[in-house]
Amino acid sequence: MFEFLQVWHMWVIAGILLFVWEIFTPGFVVACFGVGAIAAGLLTFMGIGIKAQLTVFALVSAATGYLIRPLVLKMLSSGSKKVESNVDAMVGKTVIVSVRIDPDKEEGYVKLAGDRWRAVSVTGEAVEEGEKVVIERIEGTRVFVRPGTAE
Q1: If you ran DSSP here, which 8-state letter would residue 28 be given?
Q2: CA angle (118 as vertex; 112, 124 as ends), nearest 5
Q3: Domain limits at 107?
């Protein structure tokens, strides 16, 4: 059935299949073996023996994984910025106090993204209704704020 295929064809086909497999498994690991298979296929086309084919496959795969993989991963990750979401995106935002923050009575609320959040002053000072505060952190349903505005 596959009489027309030569050994170098099989190496190249294996390399291409490994590259396709890499699409479904990110991390540039399987592609390193694909590079090794293509290299072995090209040298097999030139007439090297099976031991040399396997050696080339192993060495090129290892070298690609050791030398090129870190560069590829760095290039792929350099364009992606960490996108904060949910409550993480709220830290550092300036909000307005909707109910006076009183540390003695442990009362106070801020309006944040259309919702009312229990607020705690990190400085221990009372903050009057209508004043601007900056969110320092969020723990559970409590927002820890400091007086002022975000820089």
Answers
A1: S
A2: 110
A3: 86-147
Our count of domains for the chain comes to 2
Tell me: pLDDT of 1 over 60.
Answer: no
Q: Which residue has the tokens 């259309």?
A: 114
Per-residue pLDDT at 111 exceeds 80 = yes
At position 8, the amino acid (one-letter code) is W
pLDDT given at position 28:
83
Task: Please check whether residue 121 lies inside any domain of the structure.
Answer: yes
Task: Kindly state whether residues 53 and 91 are assigned to the same domain.
Answer: no
The 3 state secondary structure assigned to 60-108 is HHHHHHHHHHHHHHHHHHHCCCCCCCHHHHHCCCEEEEEEEEECCCCEE
Q: What is the pTM of this model?
A: 0.50
Residues 62 and 32 placed together within one structural domain of the fold: yes
Tell me: do 63 and 119 sit in the same domain: no
pLDDT digits (tens, 9 = 90+) for 63-79: 999 998 888 888 777 66
Q: Which amino acid is at 82?
A: K
What token pair was written down for 64?
């690609």
Rounded Cα distance between 61 and 104, Å, is 66
Claim to verify: residue 97 and residue 52 sit in the same structural domain: no
